[in-house]
Amino acid sequence: MNSASAAYPIGTPGIPWGDAERAQWLSRQTRQRSYESDVLSVIERLRSRFDVHEYGCLEYGPDVYPLMAIRSRNWRADRPVVLITGGVHGYETSGVHGALQFVEQHALDYAGRVNLLVAPCVSPWAYERIHRWNANAIDPNRSFRDDGQAGESAALMQLVASIAEPILLHIDLHETTDTDETEFRPALAARDGKPFEPGDIPDGFYLVDDTENPQPEFQQAVIEAVEKITHIAPADDKGEIIGSPAVARGVIQYPLAQLGLCTSMTNARYRTTTEVYPDSGRVTTEQCNAAQVAAVCAAIDYALSVG
């Protein structure tokens, strides 16, 4: 496959999508699961132990999605802030459920030591449709910049900007799936009028550090914790993971701010993006969620121990 048309059924080779192509793409998207049942119901039962509030609202046609955040009760100015985000890409399921599972099972372990702020499902429209983009065919995880066009990203940036206390840690929970190669990258190439260049999906868990502010010891602490739950992605024959050089076992680096990625929106010393591989025959759904939880706990423990 060497062209967008060969890889994806919408669009003309070499020509970026216009309104008609975006409308055609949107018409193909169907609701496959419920944000209300899967996410909002879980958040609702957490109200007895945490502060919960709506930080924005998305409207896509007849569909309305409240954007919800979970905060530590008894928030204090003299405690560092830990930011946990999931579901920036709605189809990356363990990011959403891993964030919620962490809150349910472990958040109170850190009471009195940190202020926790958790946005477990940043992109609810995409969560329901098991998609990477929002309804406007925009990737929220390339929109964390002042001129970003995704409402999901803008709302989260406003929430984070309202936090006065210093943010020590931001961990953003993601997955790399086989459908990245069969659906989402071909769609991206078609949307942008570019050739589709096939790649490989890493077999295992890995992390994305910041090229401009690398924290190798922090990243390895997370890798070592997750390795107890699931396997770590090896580098390929080129020494790369998903086309980027592996700077350490299970770790690559991206220029976060340049790409407009979620973890670029704070000046936190410790920042990482998890990438779980749910399509492996070696893992279960429960292990994928547990890997996200282990990553969060290890990240917080390291940040608190080192400062």
Automatic annotation (TrEMBL):
Q: Which GO terms describe its molecular function?
A: hydrolase activity, acting on ester bonds; metallocarboxypeptidase activity; zinc ion binding
Q: What is this protein called?
A: Peptidase M14 domain-containing protein
| Entries under SUPFAM superfamilies matching the protein | Zn-dependent exopeptidases (SSF53187)
Q: What is the organism of origin for this protein?
A: Marinobacter excellens LAMA 842
- Where does the record place the Peptidase M14 domain? 31-307
Swiss-Prot/TrEMBL keywords: Hydrolase, Metal-binding, Zinc
User: Sorted alphabetically, which CDD domains does this protein's record hold?
Assistant: M14_REP34-like
Q: Which Gene3D superfamilies did the record assign?
A: Zn peptidases
